[in-house]
Structures are given as C-alpha cells and as structure tokens.
User: What shape does this take?
Amino acid sequence: MIGAAQREGAVSKVEGTDLDVVRVGEGPDLLLLHTLLSDRSVYDRVVPAFAKTRRVWLPNLPGFGASPPAGPRLEEYADRLAGMFTALGLGPGTDVVSNGFGGHVAIALAIRHGARFRRLVIADAVAKFSEPGREALRLLAERVREGGIAAGIETSIRRTFTDAFVAAHPEIVEDRRRRLEKFDPVAFRNACLALAAMDFRSALGGITNPTLVMTGALDPTTPPALGRELATGIPGTRFIEIQDCAHCP
Assistant: This one.
C-alpha cells in the first residue's frame, strides 16, 4: 500500500524548492517525520493502519530522497516544514509524530510554528545532547566526510537497534543498511552537525502543543534521562519509557 503511494506521491513546491512528500489515506491530517538514519520508508509498516482513519503526510526531510538540503541549523528544517503546511493547506488540527532527527526538527517546529498544528509525539529526541553525545555526532560527521556514507553505516545501525533486534530481524536491518547506502553524505554530515550544535532548553517552556515524549530504554543516542529532561521542559508533557527498545520504537 505505502509503496504504491510513494510511487504516485505528489511533490509539493515549497519556497522555490521541491519538498518530496506523499499522501496516503483520508481523514484528519497526520504528519510523520523520520529519523536521521532512514527516510520516510521507516514508517512503511505502520502507515497502512494510520491511513484507515487519517490523511497521512510523509515528507522526506530536507537532504533526504528528492528533498533538497536545508541550511546548517534545525530551525531552517523547521521553517521548510512550515512552508509545506502553507503549500499543502495543512490546518491547525494536524498532528505531528516524529522520531530521532525528525523529533528534533519537530521541537524546532513547535517552538517557531506551534500554532500551525495540534498534538505532538516525539520519540527518542533531546533538548540538548550531552558533550559525549555531541562529540559522537561530530565524529560520525567527520567519518562520513572522510569515507563517504559507507563509513558511518555500521555505527548508525548499532545506535538504532539493539543487538537482540539485529539478531532477530536481520532482514529489517539489511533493508535499513541498503537505504543508508543511498544517502547524500553531505546532507547526512550537515544533519549530524546541526544536531551537535542544537540547544532548545531555554525555549521549551514556550511550547503549548499537547505533547508526548517517549524514549527507548536501551537507546544509546538519546537515553531516557535526557528524554525525561526534554519532557520536563515542555509544560504538561507526558513521558513514556519503552522497554527493550533502542532508537526507533
């Protein structure tokens, strides 16, 4: 179902550039934002269920798929998405579900354009990475700069899935590996550096969207303690820790 939708998907003109986005289903609008370590296909297994009752929008974030890159800051990714809301006529009743890199873009979207949508789900994201986390992102960016995207694939896989998941679902892991191989190394590197530089802590209190934050208990990239810190910073936010899960619940 989703494969056909992706082949037939519309390309939306946004602020003079093409943002690669497809639509599936009918009903209240639902926007899904993917992680750094995948493209919109990470949602393939759940979109058919959502599409029974929702009109689901699946953009490839700037720098992924056919979407041209954004600038060096997460706020610029968020502004591109806000432009997409205008281009597609998405109203304030839209809900946003996000994971990983998409979660950080969603935080920026809520800070800068929160009135454009309703509820927000953030899976495995933080307000600011710890210094070891920031350094790991900078090292991953440097590894990709020197050796291309292939140089960062194994690190990315191990930070996405638990060892038990890798052993139990080799076909999913191999599919993710094949998709990673096609990524633009410059866009991937810039996204890593944007994550390393971000610090949303002082702006979280201004988010008024009803928000749910969830974190995989075994996530080495955005660990539960930092997920709780993010949830605490956004007024009225719920927090859920997902057991036996890493970065992509």
